[in-house]
Amino acid sequence: MTRIAIIGAGMAGLTAARHLLDAGAEVTVFDKSRGVGGRLATRRSDVGAFDHGAPLVQGDGAGFAEAMDGLASAERHGDGWRGLPGMSGLLKPWLAGAIHVPGCRIVRIEKRVLVDETDARHGPFDAVIVAVPAPQALDLTGQDALAQVVMDPVWTVLAAWDGAGAEDPDPVAPLDKILLQRGPGFRWIAHARAEWSRANLERTKADIAAELLTSLVRALGQVEAPIHLDAHRWRYARVARPLGAPFLDCGDGVLAGGDWALGPDAGHAFASGRAMAREIASRTLSAADQVG
Ligand SMILES: Cc1cc2nc3c(=O)[nH]c(=O)nc-3n(C[C@H](O)[C@H](O)[C@H](O)COP(=O)(O)OP(=O)(O)OC[C@H]3O[C@@H](n4cnc5c(N)ncnc54)[C@H](O)[C@@H]3O)c2cc1C
Q1: Membrane spanning segments where (predicted)?
Q2: pLDDT digits (tens, 9 = 90+) for 248-272
Q3: Pairing of strands 113-116, 106-110
Q4: What CATH topology corresponds to 3-41+57-149+242-289?
Q5: CATH class of the region 150-239
Q6: 164 C-alpha vs ligand 1 centroid, how far in Å?
Q7: Where in the chain are the domains?
Q8: pLDDT grade for 67, boundaries at 50, 70 and 90
Q9: Residue 11 contacts by C-beta under 8 Å, 6 or more apart in sequence?
Q10: Ligand 1 atom with least separation from CA of 36
Q11: Helix (H) or strand (E) segment spanning residue 272
Q12: What average pLDDT does range 73-102 have in this prediction?
């Protein structure tokens, strides 16, 4: 059986995994995180969950709407879809049948063998898909073309209050977006502007949480202290300048892709993942098993 390794359990990696599993390959998915979803993320807390990454997934590329509508873990919301019960649950069904290796950071690829940070070796595989943000893919593959991709950072503040604030708050600088978490309670997620996030990238979480809270409090008109406050740094949040091709062929059976190949939305990651699966299937699987 053809053995494929996928590094990264986000939209791109799991799209590729699902297509290759359906085509009959043995698929092993490695991710440095314990969960799945990548930037489709949900953080649990004493006051409830926060979808602190993408609030929904959007895309108008071929097959994306059908794929989302086919997921029992997806619900339509406005011009996109969100995960059930949270964003990190959206893509879990696509892992069915794969070998999942969570909490495993890959640091090197040597002739289709993956080496993790404990120096353990995995493989060799027939092909490898690198589905991680472009700067991390550059570290793993050494492909100079990845250096031209630009990904903007985003600092995110997560806060909760006992009582409601303004219903439809306007963001106060440096905030760009303020979102009320669905479900009971008053949990808010606010994303800072990219340029502010870049200028403040290396500050501590506590410091950022305190500073962004002042803008959030003004926007919401809150007078009480929050019952929960946290911050999250997305070092590579949104693609500002994509590669302009669905994936990069790194040679020796290694392909690299992700949203950064095509654009800023999860639908771009889907298109990249599907293109990589098709390419690998055409090289390694029998004609009968080609990815549709
Ligand atoms: C704040 C924010 C708001 C957003 N808003 C929207 C929106 O409104 N609409 C929309 O469509 N999109 C939105 N997005 C973008 C969307 O989340 C991404 O386009 C999409 O999730 C990218 O998927 P991906 O698979 O390419 O990468 P990722 O989701 O980043 O997945 C990469 C995975 O690789 C893993 N990884 C990295 N390095 C290694 C390693 N060395 N070894 C093992 N594992 C590794 C990571 O842990 C991660 O799970 C938003 C993103 C953010 C952060």
Answers
A1: none
A2: 999 999 999 999 999 999 999 999 9
A3: antiparallel
A4: FAD/NAD(P)-binding domain (3.50.50)
A5: alpha beta
A6: 30
A7: 3-41+57-149+242-289, 150-239
A8: very high
A9: 38, 39, 40, 57, 91, 259, 266, 269, 270, 273
A10: 49
A11: helix 266-284
A12: 97
